[in-house]
Amino acid sequence: DGSELVEIQNYANAKYAEPNEEMFGLAKDRNVILITLESLQTFVMNNTMDGHVITPFLNELSQDKDTIYFPNFYHQTGLGKTSDSEFIVENSLYPRNGSAVFFTHSGNKYQSLSSRLGENGYATSVMHANNRSFWNRDIMYRALDIDQFYDVASYDIGENDAVNWGMKDIPFLEQSAEMMQHFQQPFATRMILLTNHHPFTLDEEDMYIPKYTSNSRTLNNYFQTVRYMDEAVKLFFEDLKEKGLYDNSIIVMYGDHYGISENHNKAMGMYLDKEITPYDNAMLQKVPLFIHIPGSNKGEVREQLGGQLDIRPTLLHLLGIESRGDIQFGQDLFSEDYDPFVIFRDGRFVTPEYVYAHEICYDTETGEEVDIANCETSFDRVSEELDYSERLINGDLLRFKTDQSNGENGPTLQDGKPNPE
Ligand code: GP9
Ligand code: MN
C-alpha cells in the first residue's frame, strides 16, 4: 500500500536541497542535449599517455568560460552499466543491487526526468545507434515517458561507419545533429555514445594516438578510443554551432561508468605509477561531468563531490523547473544546502573526509587508512538510503504518488491522505 511510500517521501523531502537562486532557471527554455560519454573515467582528463594528450577537446572544454566542470564526480551504477546510468539520470534513484533494473522493473511507474520535461513542453527523445530492444530499452523508455527513440534504424551506417559494437561516434553524432535540426523545440534528447566501449577496438584510421604498452590489452586500447571519442565530441560542438543549435541549448555530458575494471589493477598501477589499493579503486570511479551553458559565463572547475543521482535535480533547477516533492535521492549540485556524500551502489562511499571501501576506512585527502570508527558513523545512513531506493523500486511505490507533488503543501498520496511533513 501507500503507507510505505510516506516514509520514503519524508526521507526524500528531508533531503531536498533548495535551488541556488543564481542558478535556478539559468538555462530556462533551452534545448537539452545530454550526452553519455561511454566508459569515460576522470583519470584520463588533463593527463597524458606516453606524452600524448588523451582528451584535448574535453580538457579545453573543462576550462571554458561557459562550462562548469566537476572533477570529483562519481558514477553510481551497478551491473546494469549504461542502462543503470540512464536509470539514475532519469529518476535520481539507485539502480538495483545484483541485477539490471531496466530488465527487472520496466513495468513500474516512474516520475522520470523525461516525464517532468515533457510536462514542461519539451519534446523528449533518446538517440542511440543500437537495436531498440537491446537492454530492454524500448520497454523501459515507455515507462520513463520518453517520446521518441531514434535507434539504429534511424541511422545510415556506411561501410566505414561501424567498429566494435556498432556505429562509430563521429558519424553517429553527425547524423544526430542533422536530425536534431528538425526536432520540435524545445527538445530534450539523451545521446548515448558507443565507440569507447570494451574491448575498445578501433580502425587504424581512427587512431589519433598510439596504444599504451602494458600487460592489459584493454587498457592499452582504452586511451585510443577515449581520444577518438574526444574528437567526435569536438566535431559535434562545431556542428551544433554551424546548425544554429548551440546558443540555445544546454549541453550536459557525463561518463556512465568505469571502462577499466579492477581486473586491470596491475596495468593501471603501472600507468598511474603506484600500487592500486581499494582506496584508489574507489577514486577511479570518478567520471567527468560537464555542464556547458553557452553564453552564461558561469564556467568554473568545481571541486565539490557529486554523483550521478545529482544530475536530475541539478538539471531541472537549471531549467527553472521545481523538483520539490519529487522522490529523488540526489541533490542540486549548486544548492547552498548540498550535502557532499556519495554512495556507490555496492555500499562504498565517499565524503570530504573519508572513503569507505572493502571494509577499510581511508582519509579522502591522503588515502591513508584510518580508524574504522570514522566510517562506522555513516553506515546506517548508507544502508537506509540504499534500502529506501530498493524498496521503492521493488514495491513499485511511485504508483501511489500523485502528479502534482510539487505543490506548496508538499506531496499528497493518491488515496487522498495528506503526507505528514
Ligand atoms: C549498448 C551500450 C553499452 O547499447 O549502451 O552498454 P554497456 O555495456 O556499457 O552497459
Ligand atoms: Mn556504458
UniProtKB/TrEMBL annotation:
Binding site for Mn(2+): E38, T82, D256, H257
Binding site for substrate: H197
Comp. bias regions, Polar residues: 403-412
Region (Disordered): 401-421
Occurrences of domain Sulfatase N-terminal (ranges): 30-321
Highest taxon in the source lineage: Bacteria
Cellular component annotations (GO), alphabetically ordered: plasma membrane
Subcellular location: Cell membrane
Molecular function GO terms recorded: metal ion binding
Alphabetical UniProt keywords: Cell membrane, Manganese, Membrane, Metal-binding, Transmembrane, Transmembrane helix
Topology of this chain in the membrane: Multi-pass membrane protein
Location of the active site: T82
Main location class: membrane
Signal peptide extent: none
Membrane is among the record's keywords: yes
Family membership: Belongs to the LTA synthase family.
Protein name: LTA synthase family protein
Residues of the full protein shown: 220 to 640 of 646
